Amino acid sequence: MRMGLPESVHRDIRELHLFRDMVESHFADLMRGAYVQNFPPQIQLISEGETSDFLHIILSGSVDLFSTWNKRETSMATVRPISTFILAATIRDAPYLMSARTLTKSRIALIPSQDVRAVFDADNAFARAIVAELAQCYRSMVKAQKDLKLRTSLERLANFLLRQQIQSGGAATFELDFEKRHLAAVLGMTPENLSRAFKGLQPYGVEVDGMQITIADPKDLAGFAKPNPLIDDHST
Amino acid sequence: MRMGLPESVHRDIRELHLFRDMVESHFADLMRGAYVQNFPPQIQLISEGETSDFLHIILSGSVDLFSTWNKRETSMATVRPISTFILAATIRDAPYLMSARTLTKSRIALIPSQDVRAVFDADNAFARAIVAELAQCYRSMVKAQKDLKLRTSLERLANFLLRQQIQSGGAATFELDFEKRHLAAVLGMTPENLSRAFKGLQPYGVEVDGMQITIADPKDLAGFAKPNPLIDDHST
DNA sequence: GCAGAGATTTGATCTGGATCAAATATCGAG
DNA sequence: CTCGATATTTGATCCAGATCAAATCTCTGC
Question: I need a surface site. Which of A109, A115, A185, B73 has the fewest CB within 10 A?
Fold first, then answer.
């Protein structure tokens, strides 16, 4: 399985903020030990509590970060291409706080954690890029926490739909890109309740047909959802 | 109010992980524009949405990081000496995601954000220390999120008490170091419910007398609380 | 195309925690 | 030390969301 990365993958990774500005030879150091693997859906990639062996980069597909305690399970985030995950554990050489599993067929690049830490010590541009990335991750987590603590499940769904609509181009009708069971877990509710929550948004012009969502009047829905960039804008 | 920092404060700050390894002259650059201010309790220091003017370092007292949306408010974290807060916003030059207010009389050092960013660009040891700090902050937030999503309020209180007991030396009897109203906010419940939650822990040997808590048998309480380092150990 | 497994929806009920109201305790200022 | 303000506790009730049960629906592999 271990082999040199295809040149195209090499280029895709190099374009990530995290690797864009680093010295070429350092980047080559990272790529030397890296490899790419394809995974079927529903494969557990990492388990919380283990120590970090590889920095993961998702090239295609989607990955669920989740966590369990006392037989309960919750979904913490969904990772999409092209981005890294579990960077903090890799850098601190600390145990994973979350587990990861593929949601769909996924292509993932793996870079040995010790290589990442070695290059981090040697390459200042890389160290700075990691700062930017971690600050971003931190802020995303703060936003998620606010979403959860300040909003009801109906409000979380409404804001999620508004974000999703923008992300998929802004058309009135768009597709959910994962199954409702998983959406429920992400929003911190049960599938049954998600189903009812969709009904609860009908008065605000939300129509559901399978995976297809139509928001008749985003203004109307936003009046209820009260989106706020300090919670919903995941880019800053 | 603006003036050179007292030498003792200078030393205290220099000892923080964040500043320990940086070049002396860069540290001096940071201290040049810095100043210290004393605040009475219940003073709002920063408001979410504003852009970051200063990196804050709490020298004594305690500060509540909180957030509001749609007339609701929640407490996100409590900051204690000696540590920094709102580092991520400062580094990214992005709006604060949380507001901050003093809980008690507090002494706080302020370093202009632009100085922090300038030194960050120039000093590699500082950049690396920021990585470690941000990774830590990120992981703390993940733990808080897990605590909230995976546990009931009774379980959160039980684990909080066990952590607090260890932190205050491990004696069976110890003091809460903030008022219950605030503890309720931190644990994500109402004061009324906190009061009932304390009652609910009586069967596990928790006795409450004002601010004084006695845990008769930590083993017994832990049997209920099921503490887990991946949630409760805030040091890794 | 069809069977069967899994996903989603619907209905009924239960429960943790919030809210409202009021009593009691605590603390700081004078 | 006492008053008044604020914090905490207690009781009653309410509500969001979970759980349990069962009825569809929708894929996927054959």
Answer: B73
